[in-house]
Amino acid sequence: MKIVKLDDELYQYIASQTEAIGEESPSDILRRLLNFPQCLNDRSLPEVGETISMFETFEEDQVAPKKSPKGKKGASKMLIHVTQQMENLLNSDAFQQEKKGVNRFLQVLSLLYKENPEGFAAAVEPLQGHTRIYFARDEETLLSYGNHTKPKHIPESPFWVITNTNRQRKMLMIEKTMSEMQLPQTLIEKIRQFF
User: Fold this and answer.
1) What is the pLDDT of residue 75?
2) Residue 175, Cβ neighbours under 10 Å: how many?
3) CA separation (Å) from 106 to 101, 113, 151, 156, 163?
4) Largest CA distance in the chain
5) What's the Cα-to-Cα distance from 160 to each of 63, 150, 165, rounded to whole Å?
6) Looking at residue 104, what DSSP letter applies?
7) 10 Å Cβ neighbour count for 101?
8) What is the dihedral of CA 49, 52, 56, 62, to 10 degrees?
9) How far apart are CA 136 and CA 189, in angstroms?
10) Whole-prediction pTM value?
11) CB neighbour list of residue 158: distance below 8 Å, 6 or more residues apart
């Protein structure tokens, strides 16, 4: 697989052609638009270096190895607990009445961290592209990638996140984080309605 650099205009066009957020890579979108058959070899590519749903790729040395949960029973209990806590947040009056997407974004990330700090850290620390990173443990790191990243502290966590993205991109960041934390797709879909 080759890495291709695109100008902003072309990048925005390809991103706008996504039919199912998080399910298509840029290669899949271009194949569909150009009526090329899907490449069978693409389906067997390893995760390292694979294109993520935010159209950015990880370099091999940026990908943290996935940690296996300590026992299936313990992992299942933790997933059930996180799911319940997230549903409580989503159903709360404060969350539903919140007008600002950035505040909802920070609340979701904060809860994910509080409920599973190790899983959250393993999920967000490798989330970076070629020109910027999305999460860091200090504001200065995010500002070093541009003054307009609008870093915000994730409440009750040691992490900061960029917030100068639209709601769709914020949802993609949440989706990637939750997927890496092995949270259910149904929960991700419930969150999507708020972004």
Assistant:
1) 66
2) 22
3) 9, 10, 11, 10, 9
4) 48
5) 19, 10, 14
6) H
7) 16
8) -40
9) 26
10) 0.62
11) 137
What pLDDT sits at residue 162?
94
Q: Is 95 in a helix, a strand, or coil?
A: helix
Give phi and psi for 160, each to the nearest 5. Answer: -120, 155
What are the phi and psi torsion angles at 63 (to 5°)?
A: -90, 120
137: left (phi over 0), alpha (psi -120 to 50) or beta: alpha
Choose among 119, 120, 125: nearest CA to 69: 119
10-residue averages of pLDDT along the chain (195 residues): 71 70 67 74 38 38 42 70 92 94 96 94 82 89 87 96 91 93 92 91
Alpha carbon of 39 to those of 31, 35, 58, 148: distances in Å? 9, 12, 21, 38
